[in-house]
Design brief:
The protein is α+β, with helices and mostly antiparallel strands. It is built from 29 helices and 20 strands. The strands form six sheets. The chain has a five-stranded antiparallel β-sheet with strand order 2-1-5-4-3, with helices on both faces. The radius of gyration is 41 Å and the shape is elongated. It comes from Chloropsis cyanopogon. Keywords: Glycoprotein, Ion channel, Ion transport, Membrane, Potassium, Potassium channel, Potassium transport, Transmembrane, Transmembrane helix, Transport, Voltage-gated channel. Belongs to the potassium channel family. H (Eag) (TC 1.A.1.20) subfamily. Kv12.3/KCNH4 sub-subfamily. It is found in: Membrane.
Length: about 725
């Protein structure tokens, strides 16, 4: 929406206290150029702007009445545009008019960009019709639109477009990570795969899943494929087994074309060096793991248990998992998943060994032990006993589930006795299982505890500091209102920075690195036009003096009469500038408040209160630190002191509140060309021949009432 808000309680005119981004886009003026001007819109006037309409606007302002008209205004660049102007007074709870809401709707296209002189009679007729029907449907719609804008303004002010800010590209461009001559020397082939690319990361996870599949199926096939049923079951998984083998073979080919990091920390792109490095490290392990044993099923070759034992060499690929743990050690959830997967995989392997021990006890033909083994006891309990030491018995599925149940109960506890060790061999294996379980408790669950504590360490710190704050409030008997403000401020600031002290965190880093980090953190304020001509060294020095602050709703950032210590930049949120309970300005994201610089020993007193309307994030640079930096860069100091008042949305220096109404007392487009200001003793500037300007003294502007003729009246001939 294109609108401005003006103070209706001003003693000297009605200064603008807020303008929307849409208004700035429509007129071409920046917010700093519009703030504190008179809302009569004289700065938008041009040669063909109707003076009677301007006088009607001033009359409506003086009488605090609603007004609507169509008027031809001019942009900053001199282009004319037609707009539908709606003026609505805003009252407070006492019924007093405190603000004026000006709504501008661009109707240039509907009017066909016609000049006011061409359709003077039609305009007069339309003005008479509007004066007779002030409550028409269009005006009611405009009122609703204005109230909607005011409601949105009270909740959250419009954010400024970052595109309006001028950016010094030479300062904020990314520096090359390595010198230029090294960049020019690197010529990577299209067929070389980067080891840190997204494709390689996804491929590694696919190979990891295939490795887990091999780690599950190979021990199972070795231990449970002694019968014909088991052999037929093994043949049913031949498709997936061959697919995994093809993945392993393709992985070997990709590894011959994948870069690696040398011991000196350089990324190696040379294909010959990559091949030599891979052959010397993981090639033979990957080659043995990729041998296609499952092709024997296709050619109907008799598969013995020896072939299944040879397939166990594929488990060597699990050594690659150690690289994954080291690489992803900073991701707690990922490490936790891998550790639990390794624990379940170990239980699976031991279940396979436990089943083999039971089968060996049955086939040993020892009359003292064959009928007391755990597998024989399981068969009797399930009413599927073994006959002739090997025939019959429970199914493979029941035997595997019972084996996995025993190993998991032994690894995590001491077992429950329903599946127990009876023979000496079984007891020895149970002892080994318990020892391994104790080790796994120390490794896996110890890491799990550390990971969970690390995940909740920040929350624990929050509760510790909150308890300290409550103890402080209780010991010093702070009043309830002050207590509530402190608790709310602490909770809100914690939600913003998560309890991280930036200065303490960056304290041990070198100055070069701290300056780069500070420039990134404070890039919003350093992109202001006032810093556009500053050198990179100057900006780096300034960034080290910029601090962040926070303000909660209802809190005062500054009080009238306080000594101003810094200039503030609004990163987010909304604030209002008050003086004697009168709104002087409404500030939003991207606004700069403070004061222009003077002598270093002079104390700057603030002329108004600055109060937060919403939660506000602010960046501020201390005036003392700013002076220290400007003394180091005198070539930039003169330009900064000369231009700072143009970039301040509101000047808080005492005595500067009257300057805003003096700016642009008449439209800059009414002059044919920019001319220098007359010096003392020089003749005053002559008005244009086509415009008659009332001669007045400058001091009379603020001595007479707003309704008097103190405003500069521009009369068309």
């Amino acid at each position: 929406s294109n609108f401005i808000l003006a103070n209706a309680q001003g003693r000297c005119g009605f200064p603008i206290v807020y303008c929307s981004d849409g208004f700035c886009d429509l007129t071409g003026f920046a917010r700093t150029e519009v703030m504190q001007k008179n809302c009569s819109c004289r700065f938008l006037c041009g040669a063909e702007t109707s003076e009677p309409i301007l006088q009607s606007i001033e009359k409506a302002l003086d009488s605090r009445q609603e007004y609507q008209t169509e008027v031809c205004f001019y942009k900053k660049g001199g282009a004319a545009f037609w707009c539908l102007l709606d003026i609505m007074p805003i009252k407070n709870e006492k019924g007093e008019v405190v603000l004026f809401l000006f709504s501008f709707k661009d109707i240039t296209e509907s009017r066909g960009r016609s000049c006011p002189g061409d359709k003077k009679e039609e305009k007069q007729r339309s003005e008479k019709q509007r004066s007779k029907k002030p409550g028409n449907a269009h005006l009611r719609a405009a009122r609703r639109q204005g109230r909607t804008m005011l409601h949105q303004l009270s909740s959250q002010f419009v954010r400024r477009d970052r595109g309006e800010m001028k950016i010094n590209r030479n300062v904020f461009e990314n520096k090359p990570s390595i010198p230029e001559y090294k960049v020019a020397s690197i010529q990577k082939s299209r067929f070389i795969l980067l080891h840190y690319s997204i494709f390689k990361a996804l491929w590694d996870w696919l190979i990891l899943l295939a490795t887990f599949y091999v780690a599950i199926t190979v021990p199972y096939n070795v231990c449970f494929t002694g019968t014909e049923d088991s052999l037929s079951a093994a043949r049913s998984t031949i498709v997936s087994d061959i697919a995994v083998e093809m993945l392993f073979i393709l992985d070997i080919i990709l590894n011959f074309r994948t870069t690696y990091v040398s011991q000196s920390g350089q990324v190696v792109y040379d294909p010959r060096s990559i091949c030599i490095h891979y052959v010397a490290t993981w090639f033979f392990v990957d080659l043995i793991a990729a041998l296609p044993f499952d092709l024997l099923y296709i050619f109907n070759v008799t598969v013995t248990s020896l072939v299944h034992l040879l397939k166990t060499v594929r488990l060597l690929r699990l050594l690659r998992l150690l690289q994954k743990l080291d690489r992803y050690s900073q991701y707690s959830a990922m490490v936790l998943t891998l550790l639990m997967s390794m624990f379940a995989l170990l239980a699976h392997w031991m279940a396979c060994v436990w089943y083999v021990i039971g089968r060996q006890e049955l086939e040993s033909n020892d009359p003292r032990t064959w009928d007391i083994g755990w597998l024989h006891e399981l068969g009797k309990r399930l009413e599927a006993p073994y006959i002739n030491n090997s025939v019959g018995g429970p199914s493979i599925r029941s035997a595997y589930i019972a084996s996995l149940y025993f190993t998991l109960s032994s690894l995590t506890s001491v077992g429950f006795g329903n599946v127990c060790a009876n023979t000496d061999t079984e007891k020895i294996f149970s002892i080994c299982t318990m020892l391994i379980g104790a080790l796994m408790h120390a490794v896996v669950f110890g890491n799990v505890t550390a990971i969970i504590q690390r995940m909740y360490s920040r929350r624990s710190l929050y509760h510790t500091r909150m308890k300290d704050l409550k103890d402080f409030i209780r010991v010093h008997h702070l009043p309830q209102q002050l207590k509530q403000r402190m608790l709310e401020y602490f909770q809100t600031t914690w939600s913003v920075n998560n309890g991280i002290d930036t200065n303490e965190l960056l304290h041990d880093f070198p100055d070069e690195l701290r300056a780069d980090v500070a420039m990134h953190l404070n890039k919003d304020i350093l992109q202001l036009p006032i810093f556009e001509t500053a050198s990179r060294g100057c900006l780096r020095s300034l960034s080290l003096h910029i601090k962040t602050s926070f303000c909660a709703p209802g809190e005062y950032l500054l009080r009238q009469g306080d000594a101003l210590q810094a200039n503030y930049f609004v990163c987010s949120g909304s604030l209002e500038v008050l003086k004697d309970n009168v709104v002087l300005a409404i500030l939003g994201k991207g606004d700069l408040i403070g004061a222009d610089l003077c002598r270093t020993d002079q104390v700057i007193k603030t002329n108004a209160d600055v109060k937060a309307l919403t939660y506000c994030d602010l960046q501020h640079i201390g005036l003392r630190g700013l002076w220290e930096v400007l003394q180091l860069y005198p070539e930039y100091a003169s330009k900064f002191t000369a231009d700072i008042h143009q970039d301040l949305t509101f000047n808080l220096r005492e005595g500067s509140e009257m300057e805003g109404l003096c700016r642009y007392s008449r439209s800059p487009r009414l002059s044919q060309a920019p001319q220098p200001r007359p010096e003392s003793g020089a003749a005053p500037e002559k008005p244009l021949p086509s415009i008659v300007e009332d001669e007045e003294e400058p001091d009379e502007v603020f001595q007479q009432s707003p309704a008097s003729s103190s405003r500069h009246k521009l009369l068309l001939p």
